[in-house]
From TrEMBL:
Protein name listed in UniProt: Efflux RND transporter periplasmic adaptor subunit
Coiled-coil regions listed: none
Organism ancestry: Bacteria, Pseudomonadati, Bacteroidota, Flavobacteriia, Flavobacteriales
InterPro entries: MdtA-like_BSH (IPR058625)
Transmembrane intervals: 6-26
Multidrug resistance protein MdtA-like barrel-sandwich hybrid domain residues: 69-216
Domain of life of the organism encoding this protein: Bacteria
UniProt keyword terms in alphabetical order: Membrane, Transmembrane, Transmembrane helix
Amino acid sequence: MLRKVILSVLGVALIIGAFFFANYLIDNKNKPKPVVPKVVKTVLVDTVQNSLIPIVISANGNLTAKQRVELYSEVQGVFKTGSKLFKPGQKFNKGETLIRLDASEYYASVQSAKSNLYNSIAAIMPDLRLDFPNVYPKWQNYLNGFDLNKSTPQLPELSDEKENYFITGRGIVSTYYNVKNLEQRLSKYRISAPFTGILTEALVTEGTLVRSGQKLGEFINPSVYEMEVAVSKSFADVLKEGEKVSLTNLEKTKTYNGTVSRVNGSIDATTQTITVYVEVKHPDLKEGMYLEANLNAEKVENAIEIDRNLLLDSEEIYVVRDSLLDVISVKPAHFSDEKVVLKDVPNGTIILRKPVPGAYAGMQVKAAEINSSTVDSIQ
């Protein structure tokens, strides 16, 4: 009997509990859902004021010396020690000897040829005195001024046909030009600096046997550099020689002033670009430095400049009308790395100053006040 009483009590308790739980669920179902407040984003805007926008072309490149000489040997000989070491970084003034090769053997052959020329002229002097007394004095003066230790002087001018036949027939003229040819080759045993500069490469050292045609090194003028940049062909008609160019280093910490020195007359068929050469001078510059050049190409009238990330792929931009976002079509005139120049944007149009995440046409926004109303303040 006790067991039946316990089971009856538990059954009644469960029925009462179920009744109260059902009422609780019914009461909660009828409660109103909480209203989520609508968030209105605050956006930075600007008012369009069209103006004259200069187009600046950015291009990168490496500096190369405007004056550069690759040194080659035209003769063979042993590299002799000079007053300065032939090492990279060594400075030489204009006219100083860069390289001197041992030419003692060849010098002896040149002196022998000069002596033969002197003897040939001396041998005809008696005949000149008898047959050509009027030209004898000039040839005598030539012999008197002949110095084996100096460059061979030019032969006296032949005054008439008979003198020409006589001198040529004795082989004087051919001997003279043979001597001059040997002297010219002798001068190639010494290479002098064509301008004041510095060695950037040295491939031989003192005591090395240098062979004909061997490259010896490179010599540059470190005071003037050029940078070669490729520019779109659309600017070929506006880029002119003498245009001022601003150049900056990679760190954007230094600025240099350059000038367009040359513009290539042909367009690269592969890249459809034109090559422009910018000349720049500064003591801090070194060959091989990487710089960025900003070239003033042209100016666009009635245009504005905004960040590229504000331009949609459909060539549209967002505008604010009655606290709602809308889009308008625009006409891009020029693209740079970070900016875009636009035309056909009416004055007074309120545009976004910064991109809005998740923006769409019809989105409700709140325009933030800014101090400047000109497009030049867009950042």
